[in-house]
Amino acid sequence: MTALEIGVFVPQGWKLEYDGWSGPDAWARSVELAELSESLGYDHLWVYDHVETVPDRRPTHVFEAYTMLSALSQRTSRVGLGQLVTCASYRNVGLLAKEAACLDVYSAGRLILGLGAGWFHEEYASYGYEYRSNPDRLAVLDETL
């Protein structure tokens, strides 16, 4: 039987947890919590693949998933690093493969790759991404896989 593994989300701004904070202060707190989580024995660190805030859209920072996990890979040594989940249609599949491969190398094999079809149509619009029908987004996910 496999042992139970437990992960924790690292704050990144998506849920407005750093609204009103400066970027450097928010980043320092995210690093502090990631390092603490690893020291407490958590098995994974997770971030969201979102680029703006919910439930209210506010002009504040949201750390990008792959950039954030790459940086955290240099501040941790054991925990798995994952995104819940990567939106297949936010990136060209070749770019996504490159980002994921680089993160896996930076972290010495600790990447946990989560993929999904995407759902937050407001976020698509704010970044100029086409929000396709459910079947079309699922087809992009299938192609990405």
Structure description:
There is one protein chain. The model has no long low-confidence stretch (mean pLDDT 94). The chain is of the alpha/beta class and 145 residues long. It has a single domain (7-144), classed as Luciferase-like domain (TIM Barrel, Alpha-Beta Barrel). A 4-stranded parallel sheet has the order 1-2-3-5. The chain has helices at 23-39, 65-73, 93-106, 121-126, 134-144; strands at 7-9, 44-47, 80-83, 86-87, 111-112, 115-116. It is globular and about 45 Å long.
Which features does this protein show?
four-stranded parallel sheet, 145 residues, TIM Barrel, single chain, alpha/beta
Proper CATH architecture: Alpha-Beta Barrel
Whole-number count of domains: 1
Uncertain stretches of 5 or more adjacent residues:
none
Main sheet attributes: strand count, strand direction, barrel closure: 4 strands, parallel
CATH superfamily: Luciferase-like domain
Bin the helical content. 25-40%
**Roughly what fraction of the amino acids lie in strands?**
5-15%
Give the strand tally: 6
Helical stretch count?
A: 5
Strand order of the largest sheet: 1-2-3-5
Nearest-integer average pLDDT: 94
Taking the alpha carbons of the first and last residues, their distance comes to 28 Å
Question: In summary, what is this structure?
Answer:
By secondary structure, the chain is an alpha/beta fold. The protein contains five helices and six strands, in the order E-H-E-H-E-E-H-E-E-H-H.
